[in-house]
């Protein structure tokens, strides 16, 4: 899968990262602008909750494996639906992030590791899948290529979608804001950005992420976005 994602990265390589800037005043927060423009408005904090995954003994490994494959297929279909819905507004290059997601969810290495955990270790499907996803994500974080290294977030994002289905939970279809606001979050996955109502989101500020983070709605044709550094600095 690395070779396929590398080819995808070469087609969608992001522009050089701009220098950090700080707000005017006595103190400011260093941030990297990922798109042009200025946004003013109230702040809306978004906190994504991680699903609680139980570790259980697999009483029926065949059934656990079947449940996993069913969840995988449902996630593939959901990704295809999001791609079809967003492609007209994003263009071929930016919408290709969903092609990368399809590669991830069908990655033979990821599936083989999960299957081995279920049948050899006797783990339940949800736990086996989560642990395999985390291992693959850690592998990406160790790569030298910055773009591929940030694909670890995509692995976790796609893995979470399969996991929610296994746990009988649904992936939200929309992120509703009570009023137009600047969305502030620790990080946003590509799936999170798909759920945004761009009429309500004036701008996005995240602690994590960067030009290579793969968020499909951020950029010239989408919502303005800034990535904050986690430490406050004094303005000159």
Structure characteristics:
Enzyme I, Chain A, domain 2, alpha/beta, elongated, Glucose Oxidase, domain 1, 236 residues, five-stranded mixed sheet, 2 domains, 9 helices
Detailed description of the structure:
By secondary structure, the chain is of the alpha/beta class. The chain has two domains: 95 residues, Glucose Oxidase, domain 1 (3-Layer(bba) Sandwich); 105 residues, Enzyme I, Chain A, domain 2 (Orthogonal Bundle). It has a five-stranded mixed beta sheet, with no helix packed on it. Strand 3, helix 9 and strand 4 form a beta-alpha-beta unit. Helix 2 packs antiparallel against helix 4 and helix 5 packs across helix 6. The longest helix is centred in the N-terminal third of the chain and has 30 residues. The radius of gyration is 19 Å and the shape is elongated. The relative contact order is 0.21. The C terminus is likely disordered.
Q: Outline of this structure?
A:
This protein is α/β, with parallel strands linked by helices and 236 residues long.
Content of β-strand: 5-15%
Number of domains: 2
Classification by helices and strands: alpha/beta
Q: Mind telling me which CATH architecture of the largest domain this is?
A: Orthogonal Bundle
Helix and strand sequence: HEEHHHHHHHEHEE
CATH topology of the largest domain: Enzyme I, Chain A, domain 2
Report the span from N to C terminus.
46 Å
Low-confidence stretches: 11-26, 216-222, 224-236
The CATH class of the largest domain, by name, is: Mainly Alpha
Shape: elongated
**CA-atom Rg in angstroms:** 19 Å
What is the average per-residue confidence, as pLDDT, rounded to a whole number? 76
The number of strands is: 5
Describe the largest sheet: 5 strands, mixed
The largest sheet has its strands arranged as 1-5-4-3-2
Task: State the helical fraction.
Answer: 40-55%
* Total helical segments: 9
Mind telling me the CATH superfamily name of the largest domain?
PtsI, HPr-binding domain
